[in-house]
């Protein structure tokens, strides 16, 4: 994958400034063995978590399990280790800005948590380096890699270089109400193999009064949910990714196919437009599903774990396990997905990364692998059923939950991630607007033309946009 030329002027200036700093920033970086024999080591960990606040469980895990466990492990080797946690509890963009500034000034924590969507941006700026550049051969020797699918490693990879260890992730599937399916004469074990079959199910459900047959997030009010629970998973079902071969998808045939699918739903009376246009439409669609007013909904496993969870969900369904079905998202047609796949998905997630300027690269790597060991990950999720990046852990903790096991076993091996490039958020907004145009009644041609202009403006011109088939 080539470096995207289509970065905004501000991003370009920033990248150039950082590139000039990269030489000094890496003074020390590249010496993977510096201080490898140190008998006294000081390390720091930074994540966007804080006791009693944001991501409290992660903060408690670092303070109560990771730090004392690693200190004990090092003591057994005759090494005195001091590990400090640098907590944060702020908006993600503020956290990102702080990590950027720290790395730019050759400071910051030895290990930091970063969202996968930031990887390309940080890598292009020289803030982070491939793991093998920081710790040498030790990066390839970790036994944990065998337990992380290549598709999941993509979340901490940029231009075929691995920069960090992926942490927890997720996957997107179709959820459906079995009671409504029964009333509509649809199978309880529904598994569509094409978009046409999804629309067929929607038409059958349309006969039920007061039911919105299909809920595929659309519009600008839903923000990134529209992109991750709508346009991007559909797009990979056409065989294309939003950024590939060094260019962004413009009003190409794959994008038009996605918009045609939205048109069939919201122009054909198969979806509730009010969900897409209201300020709280996503939450209202969740409540609608829980009340039996939505037939099919495209979402991540978050929907199962935290929305319709009968114990503590925001829209709890006491009968969830019996009445909620789930199916893989099919490609537009069998074999038409990215890589010839029959089924597709999108995932998100964060990862842990090493500061290239750490004084103790080998010890920092040892700490990071300790944090991502099976025992540590199980301690992090406590007794919750959560999808992790490791196959071995998932097999142990998800056995009692068939839905989450499906994500781990069937979805993660085929999933894709968003491109970690600085202009992605602007492209995402353009996709959201394109679906909003469809929901409001505009034609596919109109929505595609507006989208094309917006993407060209965002990424630096038509030369950075692919608009062919």
Provide the gyration radius in Å. 23 Å
Q: Termini distance?
A: 19 Å
Number-wise, the strands total: 18
CATH homologous superfamily (4th level) name of the largest domain: Periplasmic binding protein-like II
For the biggest sheet, the summary is: 5 strands, mixed
Uncertain stretches of 5 or more adjacent residues:
1-27
What is the CATH class designation of the largest domain?
A: Alpha Beta
How much helicity do the residues have? 40-55%
Domain tally: 2
Give the strand order of the largest sheet, numbering strands 1, 2, ... along the chain: 2-1-3-16-6
Percentage beta strand: 15-25%
**Which whole number gives the mean pLDDT?**
93
Assign an overall shape: globular
The CATH architecture classification of the largest domain is 3-Layer(aba) Sandwich
Structural class: alpha/beta
3D structure, described in words:
It is built from 21 helices and 18 strands. Helix 11 packs parallel to helix 20 (424-439) and helix 11 packs across helix 21. It has 2 domains: 9-169 and 348-417, Periplasmic binding protein-like II (D-Maltodextrin-Binding Protein, domain 2, 3-Layer(aba) Sandwich), CATH 3.40.190; 172-345 and 421-466, D-Maltodextrin-Binding Protein, domain 2, CATH 3.40.190.10. It starts with 8 loop residues before the first helix and ends with a strand. The chain has helices at 9-25, 56-75, 92-104, 119-125, 131-135, 138-141, 150-153, 178-183, 195-205, 224-236, 253-266, 273-277, 281-290, 301-307, 320-323, 361-371, 374-381, 391-397, 402-411, 424-439, 444-459; strands spanning 40-47, 80-87, 111-115, 157-158, 161-162, 164-169, 172-177, 212-215, 243-244, 247-249, 294-300, 324-327, 329-330, 343-344, 346-347, 349-354, 416-417, 465-466. Helix content is 44%, strand content 16%. The chain is of the alpha/beta class.
